[in-house]
Prior knowledge:
Layout: H1 2-7, H2 13-24, H3 28-35, H4 39-46, H5 54-64, H6 68-74, H7 88-98, H8 102-122
Helix pairs in contact: 3-4, 3-5, 5-6
Amino acid sequence: MNDKILTVEKLTFVEWLELELNQRGWRPSDLARAAGVSSATISNVMTGSRNAGSDLCRGIAKAFGEPEEKVFRLAGLLSPLTGPDEDVSFRELHDLWKHLNPGDRQVLREWATFRYKTARDSSPDD
């Protein structure tokens, strides 16, 4: 998953769709069904005959369990993220965080604190 997070911004929307379909073992018709659109709509986007609109992006986000913002950016409906505070990894982690129960959030917080302290303590003094 880490490789996917690091490379997703370099992919075109169609490349990303193909990657997601392959990783899930889905056909375009499976995506169409899950997204609530026709197979022709997915086919037209994947062949470049048409661009994905906002309704299709919402359906794809729901079908893949991805944040809408991510799908909109990949489809070119939102501007790319810029600057250090707009890190895609952070936004994806934040979205995952929102879906965790309180116990899992505590485990993640403890793990992140441990990793931070380990990295801080092992780095040479400036």
